[in-house]
Protein 1
Amino acid sequence: MSVQNSNQRGQKGRGQMGGGFGGGFGGPVQKAKDFKGTLKRLIRYLKPHRVNLIIVVIFAIASTVFTIAAPKITSKAMNKLQDGYMAKMMLEKMSEAQTKVVDQINQQMGQMQQVQKTPSSLQQTTVDPGTAKAIQEFMQLPMLNTVKDARQKADIVQKMLDLGQKMPAKAQVGEQNVKLTPEQINGAVRAIRETNGEYDFQYIGRIALILLGMYIISACFSLIMGLVMSGVAQKTVRDLRREVDQRLVRLPLKYFDNHPHGDILSRVTNDLDTVATTLQQSLTQIITSVITIIGYIVMMLTISPILTLIVVATLPLYIASTTIIAKRSQKYFAAQQKELGALSGHVEEMYTGHKIVKAFGHEKDSIERFEEINKNLYGAGWRAQFISGMMFPLMNFISNLGYVGISIVGGLWITKNLLGLGDILAFIQYSRSFTMPIAQTAQIANVIQSTIACAERVFEILDESEEIPDNPNASVIEFPKGEVRFNHVDFRYKEEVPLIEDMNLDVKPGHTIAIVGPTGAGKTTLVNLLMRFYEINAGKISIDGVDIKDIKRNELRKMFGMVLQDTWLFNGTIKDNIAYAKQGAIMEDVVRAAKAAHADHFIRTLPDGYNTVLNEEATNISQGQKQLLTIARAILADPTILILDEATSSVDTRTEVLIQKAMANLMKGRTSFVIAHRLSTIRDAELILVMNKGKIIEMGNHKDLLAQSGFYAELYNSQFTGQNIETEVI
Amino acid sequence: MLRLFKYLKPYTAMIIAVLIFVFLQTLGDLYLPTLMSDIINDGVLQGDNGKILNIGGFMLLVAGGGAVCAIIASFLSSKTAVGLGTILRSKVFGRVESYSLHEIDKIGTATLITRTTNDINQVQMVTVMIMRMMISAPMMAIGGIIMALREDRQLTWVLGIAIPVLAGVIALIASRMLPLFRLVQVKIDKINLVLREKLTGIRVIRAFNTVEHEVKRFDQANVDLTDNYIKVNKIMAFMMPSIMLVMNFTSLAVLWFGGIFISKGSMDLGALAAFTQYAMQIMFSMLMLSLMFIMVPRAQAAAVRINEVLETIPEITDAAKVEDSFTEKGFVQFKDVTFTYHGAEQPALRGISFSARPGEITAIIGSTGAGKSTLINLIPRFYDVDSGSILIDGVDVREMSQKSLRSKIGFVPQKAVLFSGTIIDNIKFGNDQATEAEIRHAADVAQATEFIETMDRGFEHEIAQGGTNVSGGQKQRLSIARALVRKPEVYVFDDSFSALDFKTDARLRAALKQEIAEATVIIVAQRVGTVMDADRIIVLNEGQIAGMGTHRELLDTCEVYKEIVSSQLSEEEIA
């Protein structure tokens, strides 16, 4: 059991770890049988928390919207910076050029004045009237560095650029200093008009403040969302767990006998834990992811529809690469899981059978087999890791493709002044962050699938049919005497295999019924029927003349005391374990019961006496001592009818004597069904039931049965006259 | 954990290659923003379209190269990390196989299984993650800082503040969360325990009508767990918002101060754009690193457990020079043997001396804790004695090889253990060379043929893991057959008939008697009926021999024996 448990824990650990790191990529996905139905049902459990959930959704949306909007707003500041930068650069260069050109022209003018004296040169330097006019106008422009007004500056720059084209090449302004496209120049002029060649820190500061506020609000919202959600998920699962537990209480024993404990355990713990984790993380994630994707697309569209097209064009690549990788890695993960199972199986066997492996000198074979599985595991393992590990670089590459595309197209557009630098940067930020929510949604789809499968397994328990409820007119036997009667009882565990047919039994109060037979003869069947753990198929079992179906289960079971070979004690003090039989039992009762069970002495030798805490496997006391404790418990319960198992195979002789005495104490004056191993018990019993393969094959007292010389006689002889048997057998 | 990495030695070349490729890939990733900034500065701001296209093409090449590097790195690191797991598994398993029972007892079978499987998986997983993400994260961070510095020195101080703040925030939250995480594990164990008890004790619970009590108990554990989880989740809820906040503030600071530098003319726009992206990359890699703080402690616990296994050296090893030639066949002698379990205050056996000859049956009887199983576990040298000696055919068991010692012994344990495989496989476990006829004969003697033949496919019937598809009695009979087919010189039966019904027990003993007449037989038993006709009965009491002799002799001389007998047999049968 403990092995199973630790395995489960390991798996859980893996699950948790996989969650946040994309480790779940391509791992095997469990599928639910009825996805829709189970999902709906799971959602129903969230209903009590719908107010909280609505809050979560609102805050998730709000927080995400802020996150989405932020880069766009940042881009405004960036654009402003770019404007300022461009304007300043333009102004500087233009101003520089202006001075230079003005100097040049002045120089030329001076030369011209000198040259005018010689007529020949005048002809040479004839300037066409347009150029002259341009030069004239140019010279009349105020010096840029003396002008303060932004609009004026812009006009001057514009004029300078216009005039420059008409002026001789030497005097051309701009071209050699500023290499810009016409659109950029226009943009720069506009920028000058707006910014006056200065950085508008007031504007940028305002945006920074807005951003600051948005970031803080967004963080607060997402914090509130997280806080609210933490309660929702866990409380939902708590309620589910509670409901499962309450259902388990009402399930018939058949269910527990047919389902391995490990399976039930893992449903209540592992499966529900998965549900909790998913509710906690994936629910908010999916809300934010979807909103983010939509928001990003919208934002990208507002910046540039065509650039958005580039990003959208990469989407099929994502989808294709993810599905291909998921498919391939799935195969290797399945193989890995298989080998891991084989390995665990081998390890478990070899370790639990270590003594035998050693005794028969099989260490080498065992290691060889292990190495073989280990090699296979390696093969499957690294392939699975590699293929799933390719996911990230591929995604990154595709994302980079988009990045490069945006850089090129965006760059070209900036030169055409179709976009600002800030826009491009914001766009890049959007497109790069775009992959995250997409990958998340893909992953969550897997997570949700396996979560629904988990939830389905839990719901399966809830859907099991309960024990037949007590008859509303069920009676209570106030002072039970302990008369038990079986009337034509038929019983079978499986429809097709009849087990008990037409059984009749009449037990008087205080009688002892010995049940004998080989191991596995189905002695627990009787317990199951008497205590109505299972329903009989036909006939009637009655106690003190009342059909047990007409007695409240609680009351019925109160009449019985059980001491079985597999003692059941729980992790708690010895006192609690004994007092378990009777609610509100006080210390004196417990000690009295322990004394009657001959357990008092050994309990007092323990370091903490009655307060000794039995550990998980109750390995801190011996098997025999455990049995004494269960006897004490039965004594305290003071039942009318007893069911005892005498088997004491792993109990030392001295304790066995004590147990025998204790049992004798217990049986006094009670109707007892004893799974008998001791001759004395058998011989003194009023009735012996001989069972074999689940059926009662002979019935009667010792003498009668011996006289029949049937199975019982053979059994009796084989045990107690061991030495004489040789001749018979051979 | 680091100690385990020494097993990575065969992969040194691969790891270096991984480092190089990851470095190249990181370089590529880091280079992209620089190129982007070139596009802005040289292309966009200069209006040079050709340059934009050129640099863009180059960016594509860099991105492609990065992807190729990353895939190669992933290939190598997968092989390395899974290889580490494989090596560890092999080492741990090999070590455990060399353990004597003493080490197995000390560590415990269940946890050894977990250590060989889950714990190693855990370490492997984390190694994969480290190779995949954690290597690139610091490189990205350092590379990012270098590039950022290259791009602009003045703005780096923003990172100089942001990184420690981020690290501090993560450390603070993690330090508050980790203890709670551990507590959650404890509570999960608790709920598991309560539930397990409920399931195993379902009959008792219903019989005692304590359903209400149990529901309350479960509910308590349930609420407790939930409350703890909520606490953890609440702390966790702070994680993402605060990290995002720090990162956003950083980018804002970069923008603001970058703007100021630009206005002063000490920075250009392309540099600012690149710097912003570097800052984000650095912060993301910090985030990745922080995940390590969550993962590594888990793996650390696993690594400690694995190391413990690897560092436990088996006590029992073959002597340097072994004596493997014998003159007799199965003569077992105990000479004044005293044995103490590790950590026990008192010896489990004291001054045990006896000898068992071929053709004799020696029975050992006594109460639980008297040392019966301990005594016979010493014969195949599952444990070593403190003082005295055990001789087989005149040779001390410590002086012969374990292999030749154990080949002399047919051991049938108290708890029958079968392995998955067919019934034939299981019987053959005792002797690989056994012929089919020998196997059938062994099954006949062990009274197993009868039930084997009722199973589908008879001797080819598959035994499930742990032998869950055969009953206790059937298991015992198969494990007896397994010992018989070995045809050993010494048979050791440790209470091996307990799960058999009286009839089968008697028949089996009768058949055995003939089969193993030549061999030395040592039987531990609880039932007096089983030992009554032994040649020698050793009565053990509290680790010492309380009497030795035949049934009749002991009845007259040994009080303890008499007590045992009278508890089991009626007066007339004793006589």
Protein 2
Amino acid sequence: MGTTQSGILGGRLPLAEYEANFSDLHPPLDKHEALVAADRCYFCHDAPCMTACPTSIDIPLFIRQIATGNPIGSAKTIFDQNILGGMCARVCPTETLCEQACVRNTAEERPVEIGRLQRYATDTAMKENKQFFTRAARTGRRVAVVGAGPAGLACAHRLAVKGHDVVIYDAREKSGGLNEYGIAAYKSVDDFAQKEVDYVLSIGGIEVRHGEALGRDFSLADLGERYDAVFLGLGLAGVNALRVEGENGAGVEDAVDFIAALRQSKTKADIPVGRRVVVLGGGMTAIDAAVQAKLLGAEEVTICYRRGKEHMNASEFEQDLAASKGVTIRHWLQPKRIALKDGKVAGIELEYTALVEGKLTATGETGIIAADQIFKAIGQTFDASGLGVLRMEGGRIVVDQEGRTSLAKIWAGGDCVLGGEDLTVSAVAMGRDAAESIDRVLAAAEPLASAVA
Amino acid sequence: MADLRNNFVGIKSPNPFWLASAPPTDKAYNVERAFKAGWGGVVWKTLGEEGPPVVNVNGPRYGAIWGADRRLLGLNNIELITDRDLYVNLREMKQVKMNWPDRALIASIMVPCEENAWKAILPLVEETGADGIELNFGCPHGMSERGMGSAVGQVPEYIEMVVRWCKQYTRMPVITKLTPNITDIRKPARAAKAGGTDAVSLINTINSITSVNLDTFSPEPSIDGRGSHGGYCGPAVKPIALNMVAEIARDPETHGLPISGIGGITTWRDAAEFLALGAQNVQVCTAAMTYGFKIVQEMISGLSDWMDAKGHRTLDDICGRAVPNVSDWQYLNLNYVTKAKIDQDACIKCGRCHIACEDTSHQAITQFVNGVRHFEVIEEECVGCNLCVNVCPVQNCITMEPLAAGTLDKRTGKPVDPNYANWTTHPNNPMARQAAE
């Protein structure tokens, strides 16, 4: 046991240490802290933070509502624009969105803590199970939503508000998509993702069917026949392959599976981790995997990214977080070969890279890092099976500004569409806007012969 | 080093910072601590007449308003005058004065509006060796219902009468403490002067209800579900106090009457402003009640350092210096033209100046220039009102720039007149026209 034993093992740490390591990354603000933080907001006119938010939450207004002792009203302001405002408050890279735009940065290089204030308001309302939405009279229209992730949930909720009946299909056991399976455990503690799903679904009129996958259990054409409209919020189910020698050795794993397993584990002690871990990639997934590997008790964790720091998709904050947990981030290194011993990972040979005339080029110089576990976080791919003739580009579904695909009655949003941003908050915006578009189309259509009471 | 020694109507203290008559000066224990901390003087908590002392409520005595970080901005209180036996107070005062001969010790007094009541208490106070007396005509709560405190201060004739008795029955200097709960502060000041007072002190507290509990609908502070108006003090009242001090300082009838300035003084800067507007020393209460007696050290060093920096040697060099600049509106120079100017390097682009001007003033600040968020003053519309300066969160980002004589005022299309001209001679003033005819 402990951090120095070789191999891939669980239980490297005492239980209490797991608990501390995987506690809330940003503990919630208490009431007084929230008032002080809220007081720093200038209530800007035409506020830059609001423009920077993909869901256009009226941030100055919700912060002022906190400042005046009305967190419930504040939560309504947030949920009006973003029904998953609770999760977004936890996982949004605010340092590159609202908080980057905050005018306080110009004034004193320290923005208003918008994310934590949003959490304060939404937590307050959700703790009281305060519901702000009621369904319009039922329209009798039925809409299928494929994928119970952020895009699908936001779409379903807005459709339910409009009075439509919604059926969500999801291939996995639980709803939430990446919120449930794809986020570092310390960003969403206490089973928050499921609580949020329950909160969203409590509007009524939404049925969720788990374990049903598009392309396996039904086709897009089936849905088109059975429903008045279809929204695809499929996310990215596939992962990129390394295509190097040794990739199939024991101990080479997809980071997304590791992250998902961590989220599903209660104690984290049951999640095995190597003594020396190498994570390949430069995005949020790489950081989430690396940091959590360290928190599980790995002795040495190294992120290897084939380009420079400035090219990393992971935000500056995430990189700093990794560094503070003891993760080493190395740049300009790409995998060349995974060394195996008895079928198990023993190390990874990496080759230095450089930009030559704008093109990433291997320099020929190599080195080996000893490792017993390697996580691949080199990007996800869209599994397009079952989509038939839907127009695609660059491996993603093509949609217009309202989320309409090339087929009538079919909308799409989230990571699966061209221009998807790998952000919960963007997925929510797309799902919500697609719901509005669907509602407009359904409302313009002929009224039903027998309206359902 | 600036000389901070203070001589107020013959009462000497090493600095001009006195503690006002209030809870902090209730007994020897506190006053000793205050003197140790460096306070120049103390006005002892108000004494009442001989006999069973008044009683206080046994629930909360204070209400407050706060900034977001619970910084206390305004305090109100419903505590009455001393609830300790008169002779206990007198004994302690005598001892403290003996212990601290270089500090000022003033007795605040509130007894019924009867000559005998005053005649009885004055010799007792005089015997303590106190340096002077302050007549409490100010407290607006509780005692005023019994015909004392502000009930006296609101009737100039009573003020004059009581001051006259005091001057008749004691050799001690008399300071008359005024209530701000009155329409024109000059009237009670003139009455006090007519009665022969040596000085006035102001302001006492302002009638107030700090808040209402929205669950119980009781005013705060709540005593078993009910509240009573209390006396308001603290930083929030400073502007009101400054104006009242200035009114007395510049009134021809009271000009030169010594003033002890009171009202929300929290820092050396507040004190300096009171002195500039004509006060000869200051009294402090809420700041001490909020932070403790040590704050006087900041006040002393701040005032001293500022005086050194500006070359002021003694308090006389600064007292009343702003008084000649306090004017009636009608004498303000209408040919003084300013325009707001936004420092684009300092601007953080919050847009508050724009929306304040656009929604509530003169539509003189842009929101977009060439499609980009950009806040700039439109000189053709700017009346120089200063609202944008006041709402801007960045200090010195927006400034008011006076237009030099002769330059074109783009709003009026006329060059700025170099000559002083005010409303009394303005052509739009019907009185002025009449005078001209």
Protein 3
Amino acid sequence: MITESYSYTVAIPLVLFFSFLLIGLAGGKLKPIVSGVFGTFFLLVSTVLSYYTAYSYFFVDGKLNGAYQKLIAYDSLWLTFTDKLQIHMGVLLDPISVVMLVVITTVSLMVHIYSLSYMKDETGFSRYYSFLSLFTFSMLGLVMASNIFQIYIFWELVGLSSYLLIGHYYERPSAVAASKKAFIVTRFADMGFLVGILLLSSFTGTFDFLKLTDPNGSALTQGSAISFLGLSVMTWSLLLIFTGAAGKSAMFPLHIWLPDAMEGPTPVSALIHAATMVVAGVYLVARLFTIYVFAAPDALIFIGYIGTFTSLFAAVIACTQTDIKRVLAFSTISQIGLMMGGLGVSGYAGAEGLGYTASMFHLFTHAMFKALLFLCAGAVIHAVHTNELWEMGGLKKFLPVTNIAFLIGCLAIAGIPPLSGFFSKDEILTAAYEKDKILFYVQFLVAGMTAFYMFRLYFGIFWNKERDYHSKPHEAPFTMLFSLIFLSIAAAVSGFIPFSEFVTPDLKPFESHIHWSIAIPAIAIAVIGVTLASVLYRKDSDLPDKISISLGGLYKAAHRKFYIDEIYMFITKNVIFNYISAPIAWFDRNIIDNTMNGIAAITNFISVKIRGFQSGQLQQYAYVMVSGLIIIVLVALYFMNN
Amino acid sequence: MNSLLWLLAIPLVTVFVLMFCNDRRQYRLSAAFGMGLQLIYSFYLVFRYTAERSSGNTEQMVFMHEYRWFESFNIIFTTGIDAISLSLIVLTAIVTFTGILVSWNTEKLPKEFFISLIVLATGVFGFFMTIDLFTMFLFYELAVIPMYILIGIWGSGKKEYAAMKLTLMLMGASALLLVGILGLYTFSSPDANLLSFNILDIANANIPVDTQRFFFPMVFIGFGVLGALFPLHTWSPDGHSSAPTAVSMLHAGVLMKMGGYGCLRVAMYLLPEAAKELAWIFIILTTISIVYGAFGAIAQKDLKYINAYSSVSHCGLVLFAILMMNQTALNGSVLQMISHGLMTALFFALIGMIYERTHTRDIRLMGGLMKIMPFLGVCYMIAGFASLGLPGLSGFVAEINVFVGAFMHPDSFHRVATVIAVSSIVITAVYILRVVGKLLLGPLDEEHAYETGDARWNERWANVILIVSIAAIGIAPFWLSDALIKSLQPIIQKLQ
Amino acid sequence: MIDKIGIEQFMILSTLMFFIGVYGFLVRKNLITMLMSVELILNAVNINFVAFNKFYYPQNLQGHFFAMFVIAIAATEVAVAIAIIISLYRKIRTIDVEEVDEMKY
């Protein structure tokens, strides 16, 4: 059933597709700034539409009998497999998709405005804006998808736009390598996703989210009975789908592409690799949460552990990195791990769904403060032309606005009240505490480490010793500051949104409040982290070096990201290329091809032998003829006599 | 005149006109005009066909017409099309026309080149529009012979070897095929007086299962060689890499589709019981082809070889889908034929254009071409993305149809094969991005003096036509897919 | 005396001549001698024609006519063959049959 009153929502992504085509095709002929303004304008249109949708959904007519409805706002048939199995292109509105609409359009709009001056002097400005439009289009299509195949389609398209944007500076080999790596790693994960979809749809007979996630529907029970290697088919398919989610969301061990993705322009990192695309995995799990929780609770526990482990793993690495964008990248991985952890410990009904709510809440606040941090990092890099932490320092007097904005971001991510991160992280910790103590302690530790490495970054950039800069660092222009200020405000106050009133797994709002018994220790460990960072990094001292030397191998391993990249490199380069591809190519050229050539050679050989009869010797022919004649006569006589 | 015969008449008249032209401008103009007319006519046929269907014609084949050809053996040249053959005819028209645009500046014997090219295309058009086995075979041979001449004369590299190898392997296959076709003919009727070559008649005859088991491998392998069935695919890398650009386009784009089409229309449709029994052997072979071609492509250095191996992988997917024998997979196989036809034609066209400017096809010797030829670079990337199955382009639609269809089989053999086939999407991404990264991106290789200059108008048009077709199928697959599903019903009913 | 000679004697003679001719054709290397052997074969056939005609169909004359024909053909054949041999000799300076393998392969 289609809700006509929301059918305008289909325009939210389509406007941007139009913008992509317009800027992409006409881009070369437009003045760069015109493309930028066009792109920003179209995005503004869809932002306004999204806000309007959010307003009317949450406050006007989204609720029926005390629960939010899943509304199909638009639906059209795209491709028919069989009479029952079809891919539709549709728009599904429910609390999480509407929240995501707001997040994506807000961050994207900020990035568009920010880039107007950040990317001003770059070549390929139009190209940049057309790809931003493409990305935002695909991301919006992804969150609004009404069926799992539609998600997969847009999933691939965000992968493409990520590839194109990481490789924006395509003349730099490192950017090319990073974009390739990002695409291939996520593509590998998507293979799992696709097989998961195939498996899921073959047992449930549908792609449609409404049918799949109906808690009373038949989809949940099908396939649970059939087991394979001790797990039900449903669990397998959901684990495979999670592989896709893990690839996009950079969960261990598929996280390797995200740090390298920082080769892209900084606003792109803010948009794609911090706020929106990388949380698509979290969104996917949340989207399918009903099936996970009812049909495959094992898979959900697995997700919880993977997420929490990833958050710890990335936090450890983040403490040792010196490239400020990489620190932020690992911090992103760590925070997404927390979101996954939150989903993993969530239940379904009522207050048990706190983990789910918390995860979505953290997704929302994280998008704001992480985008803010990245854009600040962009402003810093813009000012000092380097990414290295130890080539910066003492910038607080040159970049006062950025300083404050960055501080707000750091406080938010560290979980200091009353900034937004505090509220969402508190809910995640509470949910973990109630479900699984091990996960809780790990996440608690991660919270402390987060505070530490973020303030290490903050003090390292803005305090510490002033370095010799070639030119005096200058504050960013207004368009950039506008985005910073807007996002600072969002990061500061978005914690006060009562998320459990809007986003819950069973769509029924519940009351949640701060659990001070968990919040106070969490604040305490965050403060300890901040203090430690301030002792070590506020002033220039040799203490950090001493500590890292005393940690020895552990520090080195963490600094080298636990050698995961090297392992992958070994597998792809040595094993696949040298031991599979090259031998296959050799096999094809030398064995198969030579078999064919061999058949030709044998034919040739035989014909060479046979042609000996054709000697040109007249008498030889005569011999053969005469002896043949004699034989025929003898045979004829023999048969005539008998 | 019967509307389908125009498809043969237009190219033949073009050939006739070409014979009386006497300078390069006239050759290429008349060739382009003729094939442009053919393209327009094929689109007109699409409208005619849609109109016919919407006016309630539910015959399996429309525009049927019979021409008595050799009475005593009951050989009747029968024309007729359904959505499958019509879409392949349109594909052929597009690829031929763009092929002519791409070979605009042929230096060597242009008149003979265009004549051979158009004769080749005529064979393909004839192949797709007839529904009797005898003329089908005749047109098949008509398409193979000019290929030998085209590669042998206008090719590059080891052209004589490649031409000989290609022709011999295809001839060997057609020998098998001929036996299979004669077998079908012999069993086409219960009483031996009314033997027929007509596909529709044979489909109604109940061929004994033992006989089917004997002839199915012959027909399937006979067409399969043309569809690059492992391990009989080796003509394709050499053939593609030695052929001139337009011929590579036609060859990989259209000729290989004749293999898939033949397997579908003849082997599966006419010998369904044996197909069901023996499919597993060929499923194994095609699964190998898919993964093997993709891995093979990773290790190549020559652009054309990369594409040839990629074609082995993609055409493997066509045959793989055909063997899955359900509506979704068969639909996927036809879509994959069309999609691969367009995409590989685009690839080969671009490789030809790049080669013209860099004078090498070795990817190690090139780099950063995006900087100096952005139009070609972007087109190449689009072709690459179509090849690795990106949504919004045709490859994706075809692949998911194949995978979903194949996965519908509940047994683990089919499913494992499907999962292995799915892995090709990753491997494809690896080799496509490797080429894109080395060839187009990165710093511009300053050592080599490339001839600068982006695409000329004819090249632009060729690329744009192909890209628009790829994107049209990718963005709005439903109209094509729905028409195909309707036309596939008779085949599916036989296979049930 | 002539009555004592029956068809057998003619047969024996012609067979001997024929096989001498064949033998000569197969073993002699000189093209001229081979040609002479061919003449022997032809004449063996002539004897047969005439003998059969005389002993079995005395009322007919076909055998005689055929013998004439063969003689005529043999004459022309010799002319052509000698011409070929001469031109061969001019070309490769030999009439040894083993040297003449222009038709090889």
